[in-house]
Specification:
The protein is α/β, with parallel strands linked by helices and 276 residues long. The chain has eight helices and eleven strands.
């Protein structure tokens, strides 16, 4: 059996939102957001808790849908498509979320190799009716090697540290050789060393030509290859521009509604709460 087919390659923008609004229950969580992220444009989406970052992710994974606008074009496109299935995009857009890590960790018998193989099928496990080819296993080794996790191949996923598990999740997305990665709060739960390994990996992937879309509230995760940042606040685009222009004391203090000081050294940013 061959590797499952996916959508054809396209040069359309990776993600387009045109006045997209989203309701969760009775609450509007995204308010007429418009943005465009092109393939090759490494981008960070930054904002405080509750700003709408998770709702943005769920728009792409189709766990949430935008409000319909009678007579208007659908307000969300991914790779030029107004209707898509996440599993059919996997050779172009890999998605790494914390929810997936929790679900995989709940299966104590799941091995790392099987976890990465499951990325071919957009499922939590390899469906029993599908044959695993030698080409697929070679792609697993390749993907694990790209994130420095080849030595984990024979381990049980549930026994991994948080940092090891995050690398395996990225390998699971990379097994399809996507053109872009959407990373949702990738350093959550990681210690300082594991976070540094993750940041190093993200920089390496960007230099290999994989477009990064990083959703975070930690500016320390923003690698030098990322040049654009979109600031979200209260479900709206607060600002959109270069990292140099927006990762500043003034912009982040306004975004987080408190005194933030920013330092940049060797292309990397750090921030802390300063005196009011």
């Amino acid at each position: 059996m061959s590797i499952p087919p996916s959508v054809a390659l396209t040069d359309a923008p990776l993600i387009e939102l045109d006045d997209a609004s989203v309701m969760r229950g009775q609450t509007r969580v995204l308010h007429e957001i418009s943005l465009r992220i092109a393939l090759g444009q490494h981008t960070a989406i930054l904002g405080p808790n509750g700003c709408g970052k998770s709702s943005f992710i769920k728009l792409i994974t189709r766990e949430l849908y935008p409000l319909a606008r009678p007579g208007a074009e659908p307000p969300v496109r991914v790779l030029g498509q107004i209707r898509w299935q996440v599993d059919q995009l996997r050779s172009q857009l890999g998605i790494v979320t914390g929810d997936l890590s929790v679900n995989l960790a709940d299966m104590p018998e799941l091995g790392v190799e099987e976890a990465v193989l499951s990325g071919f099928f957009a499922s939590y496990v390899v469906p029993p009716q599908h044959e695993i080819t030698e080409q697929m296993r070679e792609r697993v080794v390749e993907a694990l090697a790209r994130v420095g996790a080849r030595s984990l191949r024979q381990r049980a996923y549930a026994q991994l540290s948080a940092g090891e598990a995050r690398r395996v999740l990225i390998a699971r997305a990379l097994v399809n050789r996507p053109r872009a990665l959407l990373l949702d709060e990738p350093s959550t739960g990681l210690d300082l060393i594991a976070r540094q390994h993750l940041v190093t990996t993200m920089g390496e992937l960007a230099r290999q030509g994989i477009t990064l879309v990083l959703v975070t509230h930690h500016i320390e995760e923003i690698v030098p290859e990322i040049e654009r940042v979109i600031l979200l606040r209260d479900g709206r685009v607060f600002a959109d521009g270069s990292c140099e222009a927006l990762l500043t004391d003034a912009a982040l203090s306004a975004l987080f509604d408190g005194p933030i000081q920013v330092r940049r050294a060797h292309g990397r940013y750090s921030a802390w709460v300063g005196a009011s």
